[in-house]
Amino acid sequence: MSESSAQHTCLLKASEIAQLEKTKRVHPLNSEAVRHTVSLGDMVGMTTLGVHHVTLKPGDESTTYHTHHMVEEFLFVISGRGRARIGSQVSEVGPGDFMGFSQTSAPHTLTNPFDEDLVYLVSGTRLNADVVDYPDIKKRLFCFENQRNYVNMNDIDQINQ
């Protein structure tokens, strides 16, 4: 592979990104969580870090209120406004605002209650395993390789030694 073609596969110009078709993604536990996404990281061959250009339409939510036990993620707002629920706090966010979530950080979600699109970058580590808690609906997701299993948190037996 020549140097120029290697550089080209690593670079997505803003004009190219603007022309890309977005994929509509609906969260399996929340039909109000609808994102329109372009997976930029996939397009340049990244395998251990997901990077997504996301549009939240007015009235939509990004995901179900959750926290990861193993994965780290961040969101960076490009345009529009939204409301970030992080733990017990709700804050308005807008262009240039950054949210970072380390392993087992506060649960979080993002909504767009405004009249314009909310556009942001979201990125997270890609691991072979993760555990995700959804405290509002009392569910836990176990991810291992390509398997995803939801369980009711009330059905989990705690082992005290």
UniProtKB/TrEMBL annotation:
Coiled coil: none
InterPro entries linked to this entry: Cupin_2, GPI/OXD, RmlC-like_jellyroll, RmlC_Cupin_sf
Domain Cupin type-2: residue ranges: 53-122
Keyword ATP-binding: no
Name of the protein in its database record: Cupin domain-containing protein
Matching CDD domains: cupin_SPO2919-like
Any Pfam family the entry gives: Cupin_2
GO MF: metal ion binding
Record keywords: Metal-binding
Superkingdom in the source lineage: Eukaryota
